[in-house]
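Progress against Task 2.4 (sequence-to-structure conversion) is shown through the following example record, which the project officer requested during the mid-term review.
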Amino acid sequence: MRRPLLALVSLAALLGGCAPRPPRAPEGWPQKTEWIVDGRTGERSSFDAMIDDLSGADVVFVGEDHDNPHHHELQKRVLDALAAKKNGMGLGMEMLQERSQKVADEFSEGKIDADALASEVDWKRTWGFPFAMYRPVLEVARAKKVALFALNADDEVVHKVSQKGLEGLTAEERAKVPELDLSSKEYRDFVREAFQGHMKMSEDRFERFFTAQVIWDETMASHTADAAKNRPMMVMAGTGHLLRRMGIPSRVERRLPSAKTRVLLPLAAGAKDRPDFKRSAREHEADWIVVTPDAPDPERS
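Structure tokens generated for the chain above:
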């Protein structure tokens, strides 16, 4: 399988962790700025042009490396810019499990602040990446009256499926799992490549893991599609769920065939070679690509 431009995703990233620290950027890559590339042409563009295009979409997916603060800063800027152009927006977050929707509603209604939300959903246990990187996005949501949506599947269900398969769920748990499309060979190969780079496993074990991955995607797609029937949406999720529309976007589009979607993927500059953006455009990896500085090295900070 040919490695995609933006497939900087390991097993840990697919499971909600972070990929190993990449090598330092080659000469010419941005360190304190960003490059914005129209992913459909491979040509450099501007933030304003990107926002003009994104503002015409019903659902905008914005990816992230979970541990990269530059990606979260980009998400904040995009949400701020879109909310200024579109009324009644919603923000869907992979970081919040579906059982937390009541807490998300309380946040949207102004009954609790961001720190109280983090406490109520037990952020450190259920997500784990520093809340400080996500607080600015939530503060924009509060200031711009953007409704918050908890998208992700509950961890108990996903864990059970990864260990025992769908047959390991109770009838009540199985009823909560949305329609699953497990048929994409491209996505299956992508997940297999990322997963088996870290450990070998039996085919049965891989199938359980792949099914759990698809449950994440389909659950987030189902909640996004339901919300997008009533408002424009921005969705924050890891790059592995968005690349080539294989994870969440294609499943939203299956549910909402007439919806206009856009995928924006940030790419950390720590690559050995400059990516081939023209090839990325030919292979339809994303609508927009934003090259950001690397995440700070925790060993040097």
